[in-house]
Amino acid sequence: MNTLSGILNALTNFDGTLWLALVLGVITGLLVGVLPGLTFVMGLLLILPFTYGMTVEVGISLMIAVYIAGTYGG
C-alpha cells in the first residue's frame, strides 16, 4: 500500500504546463525525427531558446520528450 500512495503522490506533482510541454515535445521530436536532414540534436537546439523562460522541471521534460520522440521518429 505504501508503493501505491507514493505513486499517487508523484502524479499530483504533474501540472497542466508539464503535460503540455510533454505533448508539444513529443510532437516536435517526431516531426524533427521524420524530416530528412534534421536530427534530434537539431531539434533540441531549436527548442533550447524556449526553455529559458520555463521552470526547470518543464524545460527538462520538454527536452527529454524531444530527444526520445526524435530518436523514435528517425
Describe the structure.
Helices cover 74% and strands 0% of the residues. The mean pLDDT is 89. It has one domain (15-73). The chain is mainly α and 74 residues long. The longest helix is centred in the middle third of the chain and has 19 residues, at 16-34. 22% of the residues are buried. Helix 3 packs antiparallel against helix 4 (56-73). The chain is elongated and about 50 Å long.
Structural class: mainly alpha
Number of separate helices: 4
Biggest sheet character: none
Task: Compute the separation of the termini in Å.
Answer: 41 Å
Number of domains: 1
Helix content: over 70%
Number of strands: 0
Keywords:
mainly alpha; 0% strand; 74 residues
Topology diagram in text:
Blueprint: H1 2-11, H2 16-34, H3 40-47, H4 56-73
Helix pairs in contact: 2-3, 2-4, 3-4
Question: What does this entry show, briefly?
Answer:
By secondary structure, the chain is mainly α.
